[in-house]
Amino acid sequence: MPSQAKVRWAQLRVGVMAMVSMCILAVLVFLFTQDKPFWEHYVNLYTFMDDSAALAKGAPVRLNGILIGSVTDIGLSGSKEPNRIVRVTMKVAAFRLKSVPVDSVAGIDAENVLGTKFINIAMGRSRVTVEPDGEIKSEPSAEIQDLVKKGFGIFDSAQAILTRMDRIVGLIESGQGSIGKFLVDEEFYTRLVQTVAELQKVAETIGSGKGTVGRLLYDESLYNQAQSVTARLDQLLQDLQAGQGTAGQFLKNPELYKEAQASVAQVRQLLDNLNAGQGTAGKLLKDDAAYHQIQSILGQVDTTLGRMNAGQGTMGQLLVNPQLYDSMRGLSTELQGLVKDVRSNPKKFLRLKFSIF
Q: Could you tell me if 123 and 100 are in contact, meaning their C-beta atoms sit under 8 angstroms apart?
């Protein structure tokens, strides 16, 4: 049997091991339950606000959304100045201070309408950073309840819209209106089916190569003609670029361009001379005397034509006197007979001539 001393020594070792194990377990539990390493050094920062907005101790402190510490105390500052009634104490890791400029601004935010509130610091742009136990300016934060109250108007509008939509859906289900008839009218459905069937027939006709559209899609000769026309157009453009033909010469030949420019200049000079009243045409356009003279001649011609229409003078009688017309017609007939007789028997007229002399 083991001695009493060995038993006690064994019990002592078991007790010491149990105590050491309990200590290690307590340290591990402490380390795992802490959100911050115990070896980090923390400093306090302060900010003042008008209202804490139900911010609680232990709330996260974030720098542009990144966790840098927590809220350790919230209390009244004793001041009545605006935006300095409530003092919020924040515990921030010391190495984070180099990332917090002095012109940074703190505010109270929430993850959602019912979410936990936290301090969010908007990073400033100053090169000078905040010191331990320093103060960070704050911005007024609207209470979530105030935002909800402001949103009541939006909810009412949304409810009114939903009511109108429900009424419209009811009308559609009852078959009223164009959409309602579209959904419940069997005749419209039948017409739609017929239209789809006709479209299918048209598609089949086109697919079989019949009709103008079908031939346009499937006839190789039409494609060849289009390709030929395209080739001719391409050749025409090449000829133009090469300076062939009248149009090509006009595009490429500088002499032709100069001649055209000279012709345009001459036409412009002619128009300038006309506008200046030079030459016959210019005087006709600008000289009032020539205009009056032409007007006088036209008046005389009009008078002469009037007399002729009235039957005055030889020409007038010729136009309006049927007897004179008949006489001239008879004379013309006799002259034609005489000429014919001369041509058929010229000796007759020659004998008459010799007999006279």
A: yes
Phi, psi torsion values for 4, nearest 5 degrees? -65, -35
Q: Among 32-41, 160-169, 278-287, name the most confident range.
A: 160-169
Instruction: Provide the token pair at 205.
Output: 């006709």
User: pTM of the entire structure?
Assistant: 0.34
Give all strands (DSSP E) within the chain, no chain letters. 42-49, 60-63, 66-76, 86-93, 105-110, 117-122, 137-138
User: What are 170-215's pLDDT values in tens digits?
Assistant: 777 776 766 666 666 677 777 878 888 888 887 777 777 676 666 6
Map tokens 């005749």 to a residue.
187
Q: Which two tokens stand for residue 280?
A: 């016959």
Using CA atoms, how far apart are residues 353 and 357, in angstroms rounded to an integer?
A: 7
The token pair that represents 323 in the structure block: 């007897």
Q: Which tokens hold the place of 344?
A: 């058929």
User: How many CB atoms neighbour CB 53 within 10 A?
Assistant: 18
Structure tokens at 253: 């030949």
Question: What is the Cα–Cα distance from 183 to 174, expressed in whole angstroms?
Answer: 10
Residue 19 structure tokens = 């105590």
What would the two tokens of residue 264 be? 């345009």
Write out the two tokens for 262: 């000279």
